[in-house]
Amino acid sequence: MKLFPNNLTTICTAILASHLLSSCSVISSKKHPASTQQSKTLVNTVDKSALKFKAQYGTEYQISGNAIAKYQHFDLSLFSKKTVLINTRKTSTYIYELTSKDGFGKTHISCDPRTPEKKHFFLEGLHFYYHSNNDGSINIYMPPQLMASR
Fold it and tell me: Which end of the chain has the smaller Cβ count within 10 Å, N or C?
């Protein structure tokens, strides 16, 4: 009787391992056949000695390195930068981390200057919009009706 549970465990482990290996190979085999693509992600470090500056809505900032933009309702810092080289064109996507004033709530937003249309996020019960027109820059603003009520 003791052999049956061990055999069942071995069979289940083998099936699970086979499934994991095949699913990983499917994910990693997705490539763009018409182009050569290389990507590199740089994770940014922000610590207690960070340069902190007061930021205003509707102003474009270049936030990089150990820096924190302190907006009225949240703090913003660069979380990571992903650079992709497609053929000979280099493009970057910037991921910013938003931290609530109490320091507990955190969320991420991304900026890609190739798609400069307005994007939206909701934080602390308020709506905000942002966009990026230049590499490494971000402009965050509130809807005009919310700015007027402030």
Answer: N
- What Cα–Cα distance (Å) separates residue 58 from each residue in 75, 79, 127? 15, 21, 14
Q: Which helix (H) or strand (E) holds 13?
A: helix 3-28
Reading phi first (left if > 0) and then psi (alpha if -120 to 50, else beta), residue 100 is in beta
Q: Report which DSSP code applies to 102.
A: T
Placement of tokens 């990571």 in the chain? 80
How many Cα neighbours within 13 Å face the side chain of 47? Answer: 2
Residues β-bridged to residue 42: 81
pLDDT in tens, 51-100: 999 999 999 999 999 999 999 999 999 999 999 887 778 889 999 999 99
Region 129-133: mean pLDDT is 92
Q: What is the dihedral of CA 100, 104, 108, 109, to 10 degrees?
A: -10
